[in-house]
Amino acid sequence: MRRVLLPLLASCLCVIPWSLGGQAPAPASIRVDLEQRLGAIDPKVYGHFTEETLSSYEGGISSEMLFNRKFEFPEERDIQQIVFTGVPAGWEAIALDTSVTLVPDTEVHFSPSRSQRIALSKANGFPAGIQQSGYHYVMPHVSRKQRIDDPFLFRPGEVYEVRIACKSKDFAGPLHIALGDSHERQVAKLSFNVSRDQDWRTYRGELRPSAKSEKSKFMVYIDTPGTVWIDSVSLVRADLNEGGFRKDALALTQRLTPTSIRWPGGWFVSDYHWQDGLGPVDQRPARFSRPWNAYTTNDVGTDDFIGLCRKLGAEPFITVNVGTGTPEEAGRILQWPS
């Protein structure tokens, strides 16, 4: 009975005002005065939202081709893995042998807070080194390894700029950097003479593929006994590089004519400290972002971002850290010369 009476009572209440009034309401109308201007839409609302860890920069508009180039992202391990090689995420050992030792070193580094140590105890035909096959960055929470395979493709006529920081101990020989299908099948090679007991030094050069190499690798290795540390390894394609950004990505973004660009993100910024993106790019610390469960090299900092906005004719829209940051830290960004 209660279920029946409640809908009937609700129906009666809905028609009571109409019955008491005795008249139907007058038809409603809206009048638009096109001559009277009340306000304007700010063109900056047609801007772009970018996030430092979601392929907007690293793996996106940045011209850097290497993943985990500062070796901060540690070795990936799972319960089914038996052999641990001592190589950080995104890299693999060129060869496994008793004469080869590979160690992520947290005591010796060029950029905080670790480097890759490479040691060869004797010359027996095995190179001691690491290699990378290329990557395409994806949303960290979608892929366990935070990337999907996107192998390097090198062609004749292309020029690749290489940069690497190296430190040596009891070593006097060449440090090799190469491109190719494997250590035995290389299409480009560059060697730097490294002196014994040398402190950190940055080496630069160019790699020019002599043939097409699909599913290729970028390799760094030694074949002379001794120990070296490498850090802040960089590979960019010369004709696509413009101040650390990809020319083709810049051109496509310019076609969108963004009026403003928001950076360094939303969720990401709650654990981001903008001072990490200052100073020489190869010595900036790589940091772990707890919100995104990912690492960033800080290759793009505040100055770099503002330079990007100037190239694109966009207004910088900078968000600040209200998670692990302070009001004082946020305020200091306004005093930074850029």
Could you explain the architecture of this structure?
15% of the residues lie in helices and 30% in strands. It is of the alpha+beta class. It has two domains: 43-52 and 243-335, no CATH class; 64-240, Galactose-binding domain-like (Jelly Rolls, Sandwich), CATH 2.60.120. The strands form six sheets. Strands 2, 5, 8, 10, 11 and 13 form a six-stranded antiparallel sheet that branches. The chain has a five-stranded antiparallel sheet with strand order 3-4-14-9-12, with no helix packed on it. It has a three-stranded parallel sheet with strand order 1-17-20, with helices on one face. Strand 10 and strand 11 (186-194) form a beta hairpin. Residues 1-20 have low confidence and may be disordered.
Question: What is this structure, in a nutshell?
Answer:
The protein has helices at 2-21, 57-61, 247-256, 302-312, 327-332; strands at 48-49, 92-93, 100-105, 115-120, 128-132, 136-137, 147-148, 152-154, 160-169, 173-180, 186-194, 201-207, 213-222, 226-237, 241-242, 245-246, 260-263, 287-289, 294-296, 315-318. It is α+β, with helices and mostly antiparallel strands.
